[in-house]
Design a protein that fits this description.
Structural class: alpha/beta
Number of helices: 6
Strand content: 15-25%
Order of helices and strands: EEHEHHEHEEHEHEE
Number of strands: 9
CATH architecture of the largest domain: 3-Layer(aba) Sandwich
Strand order of the largest sheet: 5-4-6-7
Shape: rod-shaped
CATH superfamily of the largest domain: BRCT domain
Largest sheet: 4 strands, parallel
């Protein structure tokens, strides 16, 4: 059974409300009444809307029933109703099309946003994975380099220890340097070496390490220490006419003498004293020096 529709103005004294906007119908405002269910089509109250509140699907249903919305019963009998009904129908169509387009655009935008977010997360995940792999490779490379450096240092250290072993000390001749045959006093620390390492290197280079400045001192090495200690050492050097050098210069002399890798052996089994006939002090006295056996 087809639904039924009617167009009319509100009856005098009856003030109904639009079921869509809930507002009262003005006396001169036409309205659309409809019965769409089987029960209400045969018998039942009309439901009312302002014609400007009628949704497009209801207009379309009415159009299917009557062929054209202007043919709805009551339109011809109400002045100006045809134009107003046609306009309301057209506006409802435009509003529905706009809403559909807006919904479609929003759907497309939401889909694009989801795809963009998924791409961003995928890119972040790929970057994190690449960074992790790069960090792992860098760590492996660093460990490998450290291992190679340790191996090279050990090889150099073993070679130096072997060369400077007291069993073969008579065969070792350090290269010429400023400290060879000189009596040396070191003030402060030198680079990353402990005092015993500095002493071992000086001895290996043919020099003579002394703990205190005296008339026999020929070189004072100014290392890293408190300023007042350096000032005191410089004053002593100037007073006694003793040459000075920096810690960096001493390390360069170690390199020149070929003893840059020499370190004192902490687990020495024995200490031998070696008399150096060529090591004559300013006073003409012979000196003795010792170095822990490798």
């Amino acid at each position: 059974m087809d639904p039924s529709y009617i167009i009319e103005k509100p009856k005098e004294g009856v003030k109904g409300k639009c079921l869509v906007c809930k507002l009262l119908f003005p006396d001169d405002e036409i309205r659309l009444g409809y019965r769409e269910t089987d029960a209400t089509i045969q018998k039942g109250p009309w439901k009312w809307n302002h014609i400007t509140c009628v949704p497009i699907d209801r207009w379309d249903t009415a159009e299917e029933v009557y062929g054209d919305v202007t043919e709805i019963p009551g339109v011809a009998a109400t002045e100006g109703a045809a134009a107003r009904v046609g306009m309301a129908h057209s506006n409802a169509r435009a509003s529905a099309d706009h809403h559909a387009k807006k919904t479609a655009d929003e759907t497309i935008a939401q889909h694009a946003a989801k795809e963009e977010e998924a791409s961003r997360k995928q890119a972040e995940k790929a970057k994190a994975k690449a960074d992790k792999a790069a960090a792992k490779n860098a760590e492996k490379a660093s460990k490998a380099a450290a291992k190679e450096a340790e191996k090279a240092a050990k090889t150099a250290g073993d070679g130096a220890a072997k060369t400077l072993d007291f069993g073969t000390l008579d065969d070792f001749e350090p290269a010429d340097s400023r400290i060879k045959g000189k009596c040396i006093v070191v003030i402060g620390s030198i680079a990353d070496r402990i005092k015993t390492d500095v002493k071992a290197a000086i001895t290996a280079a043919g020099g003579h390490f002394r703990g205190n400045i005296s008339k026999l001192t020929e070189f004072i090495v100014l290392g890293s220490c408190k300023e007042d200690q350096l000032e005191k050492a410089e004053a002593s050097a100037e007073e006694k006419g003793i040459e000075t050098m920096t810690g960096e210069e001493l390390v360069k002399d170690f390199e020149a003498a070929g003893v840059a890798h020499v370190r004192a052996v902490q687990t020495a089994v024995r200490t031998l004293e070696v008399e150096e006939d060529a090591g004559v002090t300013r006073g003409g006295k012979k000196r003795r020096t010792s170095l822990a056996a490798a």
